[in-house]
Amino acid sequence: MGWIQWIIAMLVGIMLLWVSGSKYFVREDRPAWLLRLLFGIKVLLALAFFGMYTFYYQDRSTADMYKYYDDAVVLFRCAKEQTASFIHIISGDLRSSTDSLYFNQMNHWKLGYSRLFENNHRQMIWFNLILMPVSQQNILVHCLVMCFLSFMGLLWIHTFLSEQLPHKSRLLLLSLFMLPGPMFWTSALLKESLVVFYLGICLLILRKQQKTWMYMILALALILLFQLKTYFALAMVFPLGVMLLDAVVGNKRIKDKKHITKQCTKIFCVQVQTVCILIK
Question: How far apart are CA 161 and CA 164, in angstroms?
Fold first, then answer.
């Protein structure tokens, strides 16, 4: 591992210390030692996932972790060697045999937008591609960054839901972080990790209810979520829509407003947990 990767690892460690020392994240039901423990478990699971798909399932073309990463490696090499071909490929306008040479080396870029309700593969490829100059094609750095993003997303989700259901805070924390399915699949270099990150951003903005530009970020997160996991986004349309309405008209008097919000939050909790459990 080169010095750049060590710097990234140190930065993630510093961010973890910041999170575990921040009054925003550390609470009575979520002490600093527990946050460090949960993140440590996620890192160990990410390493376990890396080992499983590196040494046991060795077909990289079908391995969930490698199939998008390998396409990003091809694009990264193309960007350095043939910039014009890189631009042609990402714009969908193949003009030469060189363009086709790089394009045909990728297995999943071409599947990006073939159907309306097909999960978007290119977003994961772009994620890996953006990290390439920093990671120097070290996939463990990608795993570490993704692990931290999903960790932040889960914390934001828990913060929002525990405020709506304060008496269920510990149960929500265990459900989000310790159920085998969500715990494993959101710790790896997979779409599920970005899903919880986007969902966390949505709930963070709905919780703060401050400036107009934040709703632009909310719209972007929803678009990215819809592209990444269409069925997950569709499952979230109703509860998120009601919560957005509640945020927009929050200053107005609505009869039984708190009751409506609480019931919608319960529905949201059930939907999130159900989709997470069935996510693979």
Answer: 5
